[in-house]
Amino acid sequence: MSQAPTHLRIHQFAGLKPGPRLLVTAAVHGNEVAGVGAIQRVMALIDSGALTLLQGTLTMIPIVNPLAHRLQRREGERNLNRNLRVNPIPQDFEDRIANRLCPWLADSDVLLDLHSFNNPGPAFAMLGPRDNDGDLEPFRHQAAESALALAVGTGRIVEGWLSTYALGLKRRAANIGDGSRRMALQQDPHYGVGTTEYMRSQGGYGITLECGQHADPQGPEVAFQAILRTLAQLGMVAPDQVQQADPNRPVELLQLYEVIDRADVDDRFEREWASFDALALGERIGTRADGTPVLAPFAGRIVFPNSKAEPGHEWFYLAKPSDRVLT
């Protein structure tokens, strides 16, 4: 393999009036590229004068994981969007990226992180917890984050990421593992902390926007419109410069409540699932290698099904309707 990349390319537009500090990121996973071109389009609009920055600071990182992006795969040496934190003694490429990325997150007020996913399905936004003073993810920006999730324009919003991971960690911690650093990271209490979780831990807020399936031709447009709508939501550009989302559109709000790991390479799905396919109570989702059925414990939806997941990694998530009210 050629030499690993030795830098991050970061672009910043500093408005002459003070205002919000927005960070927009893409290609945290190297093969999730919908946001890469979208960021370039926004930069071109600002450079040409077609889009005017009224206030604040806009920072954009079009390729957060250049090694994974160069290799055209999700990870370079490990998943950057899990166990994201400053590493005084970096052990791999993603540790070195984290050491540069985390200060940018900490120095921002708001994050828009652009992703995509494996299976076909519509774009959706992921937001964080409700306001709380708990130990897992204390938070105080529920209203602002909810408003941002609505503003980007998707028809589906999902909550409950880190609390769901906490449940999975309890099970994963019971496994002895193979002694590898990858397995040790998966059993670390910080596993599950990615860009938005780190952002919230530093006092800010943000959303993950899943722009559709990796190769969806509409993905770059979803990402582009989301950046513009985020800028308008924060008052950083004039509303009349942006195609606003329909405020009367129906929005489905779901809560993740379970993550199921693949235990064996012979664990198999009952059929080819797509994200947000409906599940009936007791419906057979898959079968373990020993023949044990994997059944839906509630009526709801399957999220991020991954038929290629490695043993010990996330196989799929389960979601059900949320009782949260977004305003």
TrEMBL record:
Keywords: Hydrolase, Metal-binding, Zinc. It comes from the Bacteria. The lineage of its organism: Bacteria, Pseudomonadati, Pseudomonadota, Betaproteobacteria, Burkholderiales. This is Succinylglutamate desuccinylase/aspartoacylase family protein. Its cofactor is Zn(2+). Residues 18-116 form the Succinylglutamate desuccinylase/Aspartoacylase catalytic domain.
